[in-house]
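[Discussion] Sanity-checking designs against the backbone

I'm trying to build intuition for which residues belong where. Below is a structure token string of 116 positions. I'd appreciate it if someone posts a full sequence so I can compare it with mine line by line.
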């Protein structure tokens, strides 16, 4: 009789242990997935930041060109002010997250459409 009780407890404990191990494996898989997603988001954030950085500096340098400086209109001056504001924002928010960068890009692109 004692052997049967020990066997039943052991099987119950084994089932609990298997469930526990399964949960640990699932948790590790979810954690690994979370790390991959987090890494992807960081890479995407750096890509957006780099894109905005490159784009704003490129336009600023083009507008500061001596040949274009003589032909500046009031609209071009508005664009130049927006670019300078974006550059200041980039310099002060170098650790910005994806949402902040996307907001700044959405804010800047309608102004840049005025370039044609």
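Best answer:
Here's mine. Compare freely.
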């Amino acid at each position: 009789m004692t052997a049967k009780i020990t066997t039943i407890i052991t099987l119950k404990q084994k089932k609990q242990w298997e469930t526990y191990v399964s949960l640990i494996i699932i948790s590790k898989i979810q954690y690994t997935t979370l790390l991959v997603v987090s890494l992807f988001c960081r890479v995407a954030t750096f890509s957006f930041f780099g894109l905005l950085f490159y784009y704003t500096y490129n336009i600023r340098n083009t507008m500061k060109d001596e040949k274009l400086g003589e032909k500046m209109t009031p609209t071009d001056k508005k664009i130049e002010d927006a670019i300078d504001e974006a550059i200041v924002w980039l310099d002060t928010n170098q650790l910005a997250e994806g949402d902040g960068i996307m907001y700044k890009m959405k804010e800047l692109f309608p102004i840049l459409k005025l370039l044609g």
